[in-house]
Amino acid sequence: MSLLRRIRHSHTSIIRRFMAPSEPISPSNTRLGWIGTGVMGHSMCAHLIRAGYSLTVFNRTLAKAQPLVDLGAHLAASPNAVAARSDVVFSIVGYPSDVRSVLLDPATGALAALRPGGVLVDMTTSEPSLAVEIAAAAAAKGCHSVDAPVSGGDLGARNGTLAIFAGGEESTVENLKPLFSVLGKVNYMGGSGKGQFSKLANQVTIASTMVGLVEGMVYAHKAGLDVGLYLEAISTGAAGSRSLDLYGKRILKRDLQAGFYVNHFVKDLGICLKECENMGIALPGLALAQQLYVSLKAHGEGNLGTQALILVLERLNNLSLSLPSPSNA
Q: The whole model's pTM is what?
């Protein structure tokens, strides 16, 4: 078979797979693209490479993609160039404006170069309305789109245990399961935009949980407790949480490096509040948490992890959990 005929056969196969699937996705029949190789994206992309998939990657800072190139990925100069070599294109970038740029820009965006039957999978936490817009634009080209934001932080990305919230055509999500299973557990949440709504609800829950976690730690410290022992004691009770498991010990060690950036959490909570306004609902815990995280950003701490919320509580109470012993004055 000539090279041209093999290329045509590959493109025909991917179109048929997502319209009327005949064989599951595998490294032998599906080329992947990845846009955004930051804290989360790097680990997720690496899992797919190690699973045997051929990947083409793009990152605005090209040097940050070099470790993936060392693993075997191909480096592209633009999102458009990624899509030209891919059947399924994943993206996980910072902000809704970045999503719009890397996927929908008519000159450099991925959709412009994606062939009919191809799939966009945006794993950025973004606006539900933008997910609906991307899906409509993809459908107009004979392509598919899934909004699939994730939860689990850097640890979940490294371990391949992310919770994935997927919105879009159920058949498309089902076809993508061999890829999602490499990254974590996919949960089908409904039509386009429902993945984003699910992730935003997840962020609402996390926001108040983080406030409770750090308030409990400050309270225990001021009461003269060994905070490490306190965290261990509550971890198996009703106060136990994934946030406690992921961040309690990090806070005690003063490890405030980002598994998920404060800047991005402020963005997420801002989107949540905007959607609350659209829905006509009031979530006071969300509003309080957003104010506290905005305070971190105002202090120039936006590039720390969400566990850095402890710094706000320490400033409010004029204490530090890093002191050798608590003050009972």
A: 0.89
**What's residue 259's pLDDT?**
85
* Residues 8, 35 within the same domain: yes
Q: What is the CA radius of gyration of the chain?
A: 22
| pLDDT, mean of residues 213-222 | 97
Task: Examine the domain organization and report whether 179 and 288 are in the same domain.
Answer: no
Q: How far is CA 129 from CA 42, 132, 191, 192, 224, in A?
A: 27, 5, 12, 9, 49
The pLDDT of 163-190, averaged and rounded, is 98
> What is the pLDDT averaged over residues 28-50?
96
Q: Are residues 191 and 225 in the same domain?
A: no
Beta-carbon contacts of residue 191 (< 8 Å; ≥ 6 apart): 167, 168, 169
Decide if 210 is inside a domain: yes
Beta strands at 162-167 and 150-151: parallel, antiparallel or unpaired: antiparallel
Nearest-angstrom CA–CA distance, 248 and 254:
10
Give 193's contacts (C-beta < 8 A, 6+ positions apart). 128, 129, 131, 132, 135, 147, 167
CATH of the domain at 228: 1.10.1040.10
Active-site residue, selected from the candidate residues 185, 199, 222, 249:
199
Q: Which two tokens stand for residue 293?
A: 């995280």
- Residue 199 annotated as catalytic: yes
Taken in order 202, 205, 210, 216, the sign of the CA dihedral is: negative
- The pLDDT of residue 18: 54
**pLDDT band per the 50, 70, 90 thresholds, residue 326:** very low
Residue 125 amino acid letter: T
